[in-house]
Write a structure and sequence with these properties.
Elements: H1 18-34, H2 37-66, H3 68-76
């Protein structure tokens, strides 16, 4: 990843994986709209498992490229849900 830099601003300053956060939110919204708890729970579980797997793979690759810089970023920014500010 020569010539690449780790982006830690804008949406990435709130959550390390804002795209996955959006997918989980969309899954939650669709499940609530369908209003059947079994389908909602199963769908959310499958999406969450896939998300966790993808995050693990991506962060291993990013760690190979950015090392200590990524370590500092992961300590200060949550993976999915932004921390309340105040």
């Amino acid at each position: 990843m020569e010539g690449q830099e780790l982006v830690t601003t804008a949406a990435y300053g709130l959550a390390r994986h804002p795209m996955y956060m959006a997918v989980l939110g969309l899954t939650l919204a669709i499940g609530l709209a369908c209003s059947h708890w079994i389908g909602f729970a199963a769908g959310l579980a499958l999406v969450r498992i896939g998300t966790i797997i993808c995050i693990g793979i991506e962060e291993r690759l990013l760690h190979q490229a950015f090392g200590a810089q990524l370590d500092a970023y992961t300590r200060s920014v949550p993976a999915l849900m932004p921390r309340p500010r105040g």
